[in-house]
Design goal:
The chain is α+β, with helices and mostly antiparallel strands. Helix content is about 40%, strand content about 15%. It has three domains: about 220 residues, Glutamine Phosphoribosylpyrophosphate, subunit 1, domain 1 (4-Layer Sandwich), CATH 3.60.20.10; about 200 residues, 3-Layer(aba) Sandwich (Rossmann fold); about 90 residues, no CATH class. The C terminus is likely disordered.
């Protein structure tokens, strides 16, 4: 597990640039660093040693040094790959999983990536052909960004490392801002800056002769559906989960698991407990607010499985971690559960270096309530009159209603749209009309051609799923999962040099789940039907049948209490107004409506996260080049003293 950086091109003082880029992501790999520099090409890495701690240093080359790689992640099937490659005549100098990649490239060329079972982002330089291969894992566990210019190509695991380069400008992309305010994150291949791109999950990039070619190497297929009964499906799911978990238990450093008490993390811990040599170390986080606290369920699971269980309680609104959080996330990021995720990772790192989690279960097996609503909506007539009536009824309820009425109004309004737009609306932070009201005249002009919902329409259209559930799952696997959930987990854990592993994101398990009949994913009002059927082997109805809760925080109340001064100051002072992006009156109206009881918490949080990010990355002349220099004071520099209390 590492952070990687590099460049191809005639950059002056390349050695200093590599060092600066690596220093910016030292938190991703505090154990070691390594560099390759030759004739206008530089590769660098920071290492968190997990496998082959003694000799797995990077960069790693082939036998004659003509192929060199830097790698972030884990190749879980490296033992089987090594046996195959050695039988074909390749010679290894280490026991590291990274070394498999250079020999895979020798054997299969760019298709090497298709043989890897794992989470990864890597850069491979072929000195004979003078070509760079960048690749990212199938679902986007590990990040990889790049910037193309007349000077060549630069790449890095995190945006802050790219900003060390002399040719990377900090020009905001209005279209990226529009997508961010729609979905709460900036989706690939966009980044918040115009001249920086994200390599999308399941893609590789080849750079040679001054030209970059990006191509996709993996699609998740939902057809044809598997022909199997429920008993067979449970048996296959159990075998796949056990294997995916076993592969992720390989480590030379202490290992544990996040445990929320929900189905996904509980099943992962159950699979670990069956295969571990001793009690599994488990870690949970809780809140003083009972509505958000799930520790009692985690305790039940921990007791049932005999784990060595540890708990941490979040007190207050996380003001103490906000500066570091903004700095680590690199881009505006509106998922407020990043706060407890960050704190849980910090607490867990005090005990272990690797933590397994339950990410991916919802998106593969149908865990969100919105999937159920989507299936209900399919039963409603879709003719023009019915859609018009639904839209009128939704508007009549109004946008100022609260609770169940507000949800009903939103559902009715979305019924007036086509399926993809209907789903995009349900997962949006700011709808199109809300963004139009929020934007300044200049911002409206800059985003006049922007259409964030097109991303959802494209994924919905390109899915080979034959039913609305599978097409919707496909949308989430390609957008929300890599753009939000996996970013949240990767940044929160790597900020503390903690490696996160996700058995449910094993691509072979995901390929099995994708082709399950819809009735094994959602049956009636029961989501994740097959997972729950498997879970009955270990757990009672108290765990299996309880209502699903997300990893949320009491954002609405925090923004009326502890975070209110900060939000008011940051969003209404001269620094924010002078950006010229938002209508000041619209921002004030949003804040006042929230104070009056209309819940705009997630929208205000999105704006606050954006503004604090701007003060850290746009208003400054440089970004801290090392984790040892926390830019906390920079985040708050323009804010009144009241906001720091």
């Amino acid at each position: 597990m590492c952070g990687i950086v590099g460049f191809v091109g005639p950059l002056a003082d390349g050695e200093h640039l590599l060092k600066s880029m690596c220093d910016a992501i030292r938190h991703r790999g505090p154990d070691d660093e390594g560099y390759y520099l030759s004739d206008g090409v530089g590769l660098g890495m920071r290492r968190l040693a997990i496998i082959d701690v003694a000799s797995g240093k990077q960069p790693i080359g082939n036998e004659d040094g003509s192929v060199v790689v830097v790698f972030n992640g884990e190749v879980y099937n490296f033992a089987a790959l090594r046996d195959r490659l050695e039988a074909a005549g390749h010679r290894f100098r280490s026991d590291s999983d990274t070394e498999c990649i250079v020999h895979l490239y020798e054997a299969y060329g760019d298709a090497c990536v298709e043989h890897i079972r794992g989470m990864f982002a890597f850069a491979l330089w072929d000195s004979r052909k003078r070509r760079l291969l960048l690749a990212r894992d199938r679902v986007g566990k590990k990040p990889l960004l790049y910037s193309l210019s007349g000077h060549g190509l630069c790449f890095a695991s995190e945006l802050k490392a790219l900003l060390q380069g002399p040719v990377v400008a900090r020009d905001l992309d209005p279209v990226a801002i529009d997508h961010y305010l729609t979905f709460g994150y900036v989706p690939a291949p966009l980044s918040i800056f115009r001249n920086i791109s994200k390599l999308a999950p399941g893609h590789r990039l080849v750079y040679e002769n001054g030209t970059a070619r990006v191509e996709r190497y993996w699609h998740l297929r939902y057809s044809p559906l598997l022909q199997l009964d429920e008993i067979e499906a449970v048996e296959r799911l159990r075998a796949l989960l056990m294997e995916a978990t076993r592969l992720r238990l390989v480590a030379e450093r202490p290992i544990g698991a996040f445990l929320s008490g929900g189905i996904d993390s509980s099943l992962v811990v159950a699979a670990m407990a069956e295969q571990a040599s001793g009690p599994v170390k488990t870690f949970s986080i809780g809140f003083n607010e009972p509505a958000y606290d799930e520790r009692r369920y985690a305790r039940i699971v921990a007791g049932r499985l005999g784990t060595d269980h540890h708990e941490f309680v979040v007190s207050g609104a996380g003001l103490d971690v906000l500066p570091d959080l903004v700095w680590h996330y690199d881009e505006p990021f509106a998922d407020s559960s990043a706060i407890p995720s960050y704190q849980l990772a910090r607490f867990t790192r005090e005990h272990v270096v690797v933590a397994l989690n339950g990410d991916g279960g919802d998106e593969s097996f149908g865990g969100y309530l919105r999937y159920h609503y989507g299936r209900i909506a399919e039963r409603i007539p879709s003719n023009a009159v019915a859609r018009w009536l639904a839209g009128v009824a939704g508007c009549a309820l109004g946008r100022r209603t609260q609770g169940s009425l507000a949800r009903a109004a939103r559902v009715l309004r979305t019924l007036a749209t086509d399926r993809p737009d209907r789903y995009a609306s349900l997962v949006s932070t700011f709808a199109a009309d809300q963004r139009h009201t929020l934007y300044s005249q200049q911002m409206r002009s800059l985003t006049s051609d922007s259409d964030p919902y097109a991303m959802v329409r494209e994924r919905f259209r390109d899915s080979d799923g034959k039913n609305v559930l599978d097409r919707t799952l496909h949308v989430d696997v390609e957008t929300y999962l890599p753009g939000d959930l996996l970013v949240k987990m990767d940044i929160a854990t790597m900020a503390h040099s903690l490696e996160a592993r996700s058995p449910f994101l094993d691509h072979q398990l995901m390929e099995f789940a994708a082709r399950l009949p819809p009735s094994l994913k959602i049956r009636g009002r029961t989501g994740k039907y097959l997972l729950k059927a498997l879970a009955r082997e270990w757990f009672s109805e108290q765990i299996i049948d309880r209502r699903k809760k997300g990893f949320g925080v009491p954002l609405d109340s925090w923004l009326r209490r502890e975070l209110r001064p900060l939000a008011r100051d940051a969003l209404t002072d001269r620094v924010a107004r002078d950006r010229g992006l938002f209508d000041p009156e619209a921002v004030v109206a949003l804040l006042e409506e929230h104070d009056a009881g209309i819940d705009h918490g997630h929208r205000i949080w999105a704006l606050l996260s954006f503004e604090l990010w701007c003060r850290t990355f746009v208003d400054q002349t440089s970004v801290a080049a090392s984790c040892d220099v926390r830019p906390a004071s920079r985040v708050w520099r323009h804010l009144p003293e009241l906001s720091r209390t």
